[in-house]
Amino acid sequence: MTHAVLSEEIPYTVEARPDTGLFNAKLGIWLFLASEVMLFGAFFSSYIMLRVGATEWPSGLLSVPMGTFNTFLLASSTITVVMAWFSLRLGDFSKFKLYQGVTVLLAVAFLVVKGFEYRDKLTHYWVRLADGTELTGHIEGRPFNWSTATLHDPAFGLTEIVFHPDAGHAHAAKGEATEAAPVATHHSLKLPVSQIERLESFGPWHNTFLALYFTMTGLHVLHVMGGALVLAYFWGPGSRMWKTDPRRFVNRVEVSGLFWHFVDLVWIFLFPTLYLI
After folding, report:
1. pLDDT tier for residue 154 given thresholds of 50, 70 and 90
2. Is residue 14 part of a domain?
3. What is the pTM of this model?
């Protein structure tokens, strides 16, 4: 007995479903974004609870100009991604390629700026000396993510480090400047390794704020990378569908644009929460 195999196309890839008024991919992306809202909502809720319960909260650890510039990049990319989709609706494939390409470049620029921000944190140090003096600043040469163990490792053979303290961020144990650590100076200091009790970069382990900063922005960076890869695919090899099934291609570009709008919206909340408040 033979069985006939019916080959049918998947319904509602172009036309809207009668029950929702949306085609399949658009319905799927809205359901996915609902789960994403819950994910980021949990992190923002955690941030609020930890900040409200904290007796002290650090400020001035992030670069507002860099954060502002990244906000401008993502806001601009939101416009260009809409223009890319609208160009397809008008049947102008060349303008789609232009706007989609600009969107991808803006996403890459955002990631580059964020990379510089992360590196700045991992080359920025807090030091506590044996006499109780505490300083923040940079080690000459800007080594990446050193720790106390690294500093005292015999393999490095370090006897002293040249430290450039931040202005106003150095203080002694009793509020008095010491000979080893003058307050509010940009002059370099030679600190004997034997006198350094603890050395720590401004990574997520340093305090609660930085742990939240790296976790929340790191998760957002993963979304930016994923969204940029999808946009780049539709700009490149995926754009071949324009010749074979243009309506479905327009739908796919619209769905990827909705995800990109969500990525931008999350940053609009992250920027003031972490950088300004």
Report:
1. confident
2. no
3. 0.86
